[in-house]
C-alpha cells in the first residue's frame, strides 16, 4: 500500500507546480477498505473492452474539435484570423487546468450509493455534451470559445476519471497491456473524428454533436457495467477544507521524485505534440496549396493511414513493455521517433513525405500513450487513498501543455509574418518531444 507514512519525512519546501507538499491526511480506513496493490486481481476482458470503448467515445467527443472541428469553425466564423484557433484551444485547456485537481480530490472523497467514480463519469460526459451543443449553435468565435471551455472541463473530468478507475483496479502486470488497448482506442478516436469531420465539415451540429452523442452512450454503458463500491460509509478524520483543497494542487517533488520526473517528461512530450497537432489543418493547407475549408478530406486520408502506425505503436509498446519489464527505453524511443517524424514533415515537398512523417508521429504517439500510462501507474503515489488526486495531477501535464502550447504557437504565428511559418512550429515540436523522452530516464524506481 502506498501511503505517505511509507515515505521518509522531507522538508516541505520546493513545491512542484501541480500537487501538494502535505501528506495524505488520516486515510488508513479507506486504504484498508480498498486493499493494496498486491491484492488487486486481474481485470476481465469485458472490463477492458468496455473501458476502451468508453475512452474511445470520450476522446472522439474531446479530440475531434482539436483535430479538425474547431479549425473548420474558426475559419468559417473569422476568416484570415487563424490565430483565434490557438486562443480558443488555450482558454479551454486553461479552464481544465484550474478544475482538474479539484475534481480529482472530490472524486476521492465522494460518498454515494454509486461509488466514488461513476458520478464523475456521468456528470463529466453530460457537461461535455452541453459544451459541444453551445459550440455547434454559436454564430461567433466568442461563443465557440465559451462552449469549448465547458466541453473541455466536462470531457477532461471524464477522461481523468477513467484514469483513476485504472489506478483503482489494474494490477501491475496488466498495466502495459491495458495501456496498449486503451491507448489504441484513444489514438484511433481523433482519426475517426477527422474522417467524420471531413464528411460533415459544413454542418456544425453534426460536426460537434454526433461525436458527443457517441461518447455519452458508451460512457453510460461502462457506468452501468462498472461495479463501483458503495462509498456512503467511508469516513475521514480530517475535513477537506478550502485550504487543504488549494494545497493539494501542488506536490513535493522531493517526496515523490519519480512521479515528478514522469510529470515533467509527459508535459514536454505533450507540449510538442500539441504544437504539432493544433495547426495541422492550416499546415497541410499551406504546404499543399489547398484552401483550409477543403483540406478536411486530405487530413482524413492522412489520419486513416496513421491508424496503422497507431496500431503498431500501442501494441508493440504496451505488450513488449510488460513482457520485457521495461518502460523508460520505450518512452525515450517514442520521443525521438516523434521528433524525426515532425522534421520529415517540415522538409516534405509533397504529400508523400507528409504521409511518411505523419506515420512516424503516429507510431510514436501509440508507443508513448501505452507505455507512459503504465509508467505513471507504476510510480503513482498514494494509490489506495488519493488516486484521483494524483491521476488528475499527472493528467495536468497534458492539460498544462495543451493550455500553453496554443498560446505560444499563436504568438509565434503573429510574430512570424513571412516564409513557412508552420515549419518553425513543427521543428519546435520535435525538440520538445525528444526532451520529454530524455527526462523520463531520471525515473529510478522503474526500468
UniProtKB/TrEMBL annotation:
Main location: membrane
Keywords: Membrane, Transmembrane, Transmembrane helix
Membrane-crossing segments per the record: 50-72, 84-107, 119-140, 146-166, 178-199, 205-226, 263-285, 297-317, 329-348, 354-375, 396-416, 422-441
Membrane topology: Multi-pass membrane protein
Domain of life of the organism encoding this protein: Bacteria
Gene Ontology terms for molecular function: transmembrane transporter activity
All copies of domain Major facilitator superfamily (MFS) profile, residue ranges: 45-447
Subcellular location per the Swiss-Prot or TrEMBL entry: Cell membrane
Coiled coil location: none
GO cellular component terms listed in the entry, alphabetical order: plasma membrane
PROSITE patterns recorded: MFS
Protein's name according to its UniProt entry: MFS transporter
